[in-house]
Amino acid sequence: MLTVYDCIVSDHDLRLVALAALVCALASLTAVNLLHHVRRADRGNRASWLCIAAASTGFGIWATHFIAMLAFSPSVPTAYNVVLTVVSLIAAVLLTGIGLGAALRPGLVAAPWIGGAIVGGGIAVMHYTGMAAFEVAGTITWNHWLVAASIGLGAAIGAAALSVALDSTVLRAKLSGALLLTLAICSHHFTAMGAVAITPDPSIALSSSSIHAGWLAAGVALVSLAILLIAVVALSLDIRDRRRASLEIERMRDLTDAAVEGLVVCAGDVIVTVNQSFARLTGLTAEQIAGRDLSEWVPDAAKRDTLFTFLGRAIETELRNADGALMPVELIARQISYNGAPHNVVAFRDLRDRRDAEAQIRYLAHHDPLTGLGNRASFDHRLDREIRFHRRARRQLALLCLDLDGFKEVNDIYGHAAGDRVLQDIAKHFSSVLGEGQMLARLGGDEFAIIAPLVTDPAQVGQLADTLLKSLAWEQDGIPAGLVSVSIGVALYPSDGKDRTELLSSADAALYRAKTEGKGTYRFFEAAMGAQIRERRSIEHDLRGAIANNELSLAYQPQAQVETGEVNGFEVLLRWNHPARGNVPPALFIPIAEESGLILKLGEWVMREACREAATWMRPLTIAVNVSALQLTSDGFVEFIEATLGETKLPSHRLEIEITETALVRDPNRALHSLQRLKAIGVNIAMDDFGTGYSSLSNLRAFPFDKIKIDRSFIQAVHANPQAAAIVRAVLGLGRGLGLPVIAEGVETAEELRFLGLEGCAEAQGYLFGRPAPIKEFVPLISANVVTLPQPHVKAARN
Ligand SMILES: Nc1nc2c(ncn2[C@@H]2O[C@H](COP(=O)(O)O[C@H]3[C@@H](O)[C@H](n4cnc5c(=O)[nH]c(N)nc54)O[C@@H]3COP(=O)(O)O)[C@@H](O)[C@H]2O)c(=O)[nH]1
Q: Which of these is catalytic: 609, 745, 752, 763?
């Protein structure tokens, strides 16, 4: 060390040494900056920038060496061999280029160390080649230990220099790297110079081809100038890169702040930076979080380990916020390069909404959203479980099926919102009377069911049913008490069914019986009820094939003038001749067709056949066709009538549709719309069965009726029941008041006809004029000549 010190202090011009150190520092800083630039450059430009970096570093090392050599004054003549001087420069450029390239080799952790060592080796090769170019009038002897030390120092410090320089893009790292590289060059040079001992020998002459130190100084000055220029370029590049990088960071920050997910950049477990979303999740500011440990927010250590071990894998855990509250989150970690160094970025997704939605979905899967009661799925599940339990325990279980009566009317008259409130109220009322362990569920629409476990005596269930019936005696929102009642069917396990399906079917059969026997009541299942249900299903099944199997036909019943007996038209009535059952009464199959929706298909068939038939008649008689509520409110009904009239060429004024009052309350707005459109195309509309339904005067005024049809039950009672006679008189008076003709149906006797004539009823229909029969039996009535039906008593009675 002393030798090296002596060498610098006594053999060198210290001003030039300082200059060499300055050039060296400048070259080193340029090298480090360019090295970073090479690392950032895209593939295409990388090689060019590496060459520039190699040239500037090589030149810098070379210039440092030769300025330092100029500073060296061994007191004997000196000169430099041109070829070897150039070779030393080439060696410096080449080897530093290789070293810098190696330092940037991707995927190799030790690359900066290896590259730095190569650069250090390059410094040594350059130095000793340069020393070989050094001619002196004397002999040079070397201290081999110092030679080895110089090589070792250059390589070791060079390796450390590149490792530090490439560790980060921050200025400090770059400056430290440049300083170490300066140290590598200088320590190598002066240690190597310390190894030199020159013994003057005047007999040794300098070769004539060698260049004088003055020329060398000029060359070195040029090289230094070049380094200076390259340094300026490198610096401006660095400034540009930094500006770009900071803009990029700003952009990234804006972007991450805009992200919905919380983002955290970690160095190990320490948080370096976070975005606004994460700050919001924790309830702190980004500044308060930076520098703290991730474990403060993700307390589950095992989950943290998994997160960083399996990068890219989503992990569900909990985040602790500033208040200590835990919230469910999903985390994914990835490795990124942040500030030039590898970091982990962790994305935090708030799972609270998802968990709420999942809970909501789970709730909806098992509950009825309107009433909050269990739904069919949870009811089925519970019933299965209870049946299994009662089978093992050999106990009895009751199943109650409940169906509201009059609920459709509530919907029709008061609207669906009122209907919903009624259902909610009813659910509350029913729930309030349930005993422990009993379950109430809404199976859909106005259907409810109750499971009553551990029944010891069926009378208990009867009491429960009674309480349920009474619980509906309430008034709500102007809906009168009694408008809605409930019918209940009860089945017992195991006697009425061994499994859920059987038990439900038995309770349904009992419910059907309760409905048909007056509503607002309850019935226990009896074996015979099952047969009834099966019978209905069988009729429905056979009815589906009735049109295709040609089992349907139409019967026609004349409608005549009361005064004259002249036939005005016919009512058409559907007949079903079942291959096994024979003639099935419409009163039996029409309600089944209405309940099952089959009436749509049947009704179309009746309408087409009736219009086709009527269009063939010689007399322009009317044809009255019954239309159910479902048909009237079905999509495309008016279009269908128009098309049928068009196809059959029946003039619209000859078609009359008969609508019952209940068909209007099903969907009054839609019914009115259809009737107005039918009326507009000339179809006549009769109100059927008047007196049996709501008999509402407002309906008569609100809907565009052309005729009122008094129900046959009143006509047949006019002589036995003064009230019936009064009703018939009232309806006839109503018709007169509203300017609507009235037709009386079910006229069977001359007395009834006489009564109607006396009361001023214009038209009648009934067995007296003719029973419903195939049209061929009425051929004279539909032929050209006017035929009157028997009505002798009317005028006689008048007179
Ligand atoms: N939607 C449709 N409904 C239809 C159709 N065809 C029939 N029906 C309805 O079925 C109910 C029963 O009909 P039906 O058994 O045919 O009874 C009708 C007549 O036979 C019966 N009637 C006629 N005159 C008399 C009589 O003097 N005495 C007596 N006891 N019964 C008589 O009345 C029924 C006609 O009723 P109405 O329709 O109210 O005029 C019945 O409700 C039919 O409407 C169809 O195609 N579509």
A: 745
